[in-house]
Amino acid sequence: MILQPIAITNAVTVDIWVQAGGRHESPDLLGMSHFLEHMVFKGTERLKPGDLDRAVEGRGGITNAATGQDYTHYYITVAAEDLAETFPYLAEVVTQAAIPEDEFERERQVVLEEIRRAADNPDYLAYHQLMSTVYQQHPYGRPVLGTPEVLLSFTPELMRQYHRRWYSPENMTVVMVGNLDMDAAMGLVEQYFGGLPAGGDPLLPSLPPEPPLTGIRRAHLQQPRLEQARLLMAWPTVGVKHWQETCGLEMLASILGDGRTSRLVNLLREQRGWVRGVGCSAASQQEQGLFYVSAYLDPMQIEMVEQAILAEMGKLQQTPIPQEELERTRRILVNEFVFSTESPHQLASVYGYYHLMGGVELALDYLQQVRSLTAQQLQELAAIYLSPAAYVVTTLCPEVVPDSFTPPLELVLH
After folding, report:
1. How far apart are CA 49 and CA 62, in angstroms?
2. Rounded average pLDDT over 396-400
């Protein structure tokens, strides 16, 4: 339980985080966490489908949920005076989901349609091809949405078993942020979560280790009616338990791709005009992070852009970052963090996410790390993790491209 009173707002966000996501699924349960997220809103033995939405939205509040590789979370934002009336609905659907058979079949079709729509989204398609090429053994390489073949094998009872196993007190964190009466808030949590029985075996399925890259892996996709090609390049990094390295890699991502004056944006878009857009991210995950660059561009520019990106990686390793650029990056990341914690909903999300990933103290330490990491430390991180000889690249191009374009031959997928 994490409670944060904020007296200057009249809103309260309740965010329930569950350690049940894509990486917790065996191959025969692929997509179960996301499908279960849908079914939680279908009620309990006492509550009908839609009762939670009516209770919250009927008071002007907001309710939603999301599933990732490491978690699923459910949240509501309501006026402070409505907390006592709405909290029980959220707590009940999350902990006592009935998973009715008629709703199960209807919602299965909704999720199947979501998978079909995702398959038509070029950005989704390119990103998930990248992930499956990076993580060839680890569950991070599998789609959180699942696949139609596996989804069609699920039964309501199988989902109930999955719910009983993972949706237990030891696997959940309740976060409340806003205009709280602390005693009343703690009383609500104790009333609706304190008496829950322990779950089943909390151990994860056996996870195969992902061996380090020893060379360059490539995947090439084609899609009709595509206006801009996509180029994605990625380097596996470390999980959040290596927190200083995780923060340093985020600083490197900001130096490369955060704003018009960042290195890649300035070089590839502003100076040379080779890309329509380019960005860089250091994704933090519990077991293994990912540093990646993505660009929108003409397919004829792919090889030049890839080589230019590698050259910039080399500069990070060979030349210390100038102090002015380092200070700019610090300002950007500190301000982004501050701006991401302005509302009760944002702050509750930050607390829940970091607590699940390794402890709230990670969020509290983030600004200190950003302010204290040196140019030499960042240069060393670039040398360790951003090798120009070992990375993954995915290209997504229009179905018909000029004859002079030949995709790299290491791995070509259609």
Report:
1. 16
2. 86
Nearest to 15 by CA among 250, 284, 360: 360
Strand, coil or helix: 242: coil
| 379's tokens | 């240069």
- State yes or no: pLDDT of 414 exceeds 50: no
Predicted pLDDT at 204: 62
Q: What is the mean pLDDT of residues 256-280?
A: 96
Residue type for position 288:
Q
Question: Residues with Cβ < 8 Å from 218, sequence gap 6 or more?
Answer: 133, 392, 393, 394, 395, 407, 408, 409, 410, 411, 412
Neighbouring CB atoms inside 10 A of 30's CB total 23
Give 15-62 as a 3 state SS string.
Answer: EEEECCCHHHCCHHHCCHHHHHHHHHCCCCCCCCCCHHHHHHHCCCCE
pLDDT value at 399 more than 60: yes
Where are the strands (E) in 306-400, listed by range?
A: 391-398
- φ and ψ of 295, to 5 deg: -140, 145
pLDDT classification of 405: cutoffs 50, 70, 90: low
CB 30 within 8 A of CB 147: yes
CA–CA dist 297, 268 (Å, integer): 10
Query: In angstroms, rounded to a whole number, what is the distance separating the alpha carbons of residues 296 and 294?
Result: 7
Instruction: Give the whole-angstrom CA distance, residue 48 versus residue 32.
Output: 22
Distance from chain centroid for Cα 109: 24
Nearest to 63 by CA among 47, 82, 76: 76
Cα end-to-end distance, the chain, whole Å = 47
Is residue 36 a contact partner of residue 163, using CB atoms and an 8 Å limit?
yes
- Other beta carbons within 10 angstroms of residue 123's beta carbon come to 13
Length of the chain: 414
Cα dihedral 237, 387, 268, 367 in deg (nearest 10): 40
Nearest to 13 by CA among 311, 349, 278, 248: 349
Burial classification of residue 372, based on how many CB atoms lie within 10 Å of its CB (0-12 exposed, 13-18 middle, 19 or more buried): exposed
pLDDT, tens only, 53-64? 999 999 999 999
Q: How much is the pLDDT for 358?
A: 86
pLDDT surpasses 80 at 201: no
Mean pLDDT of the region 85-104:
96
pTM > 0.85: yes or no: yes
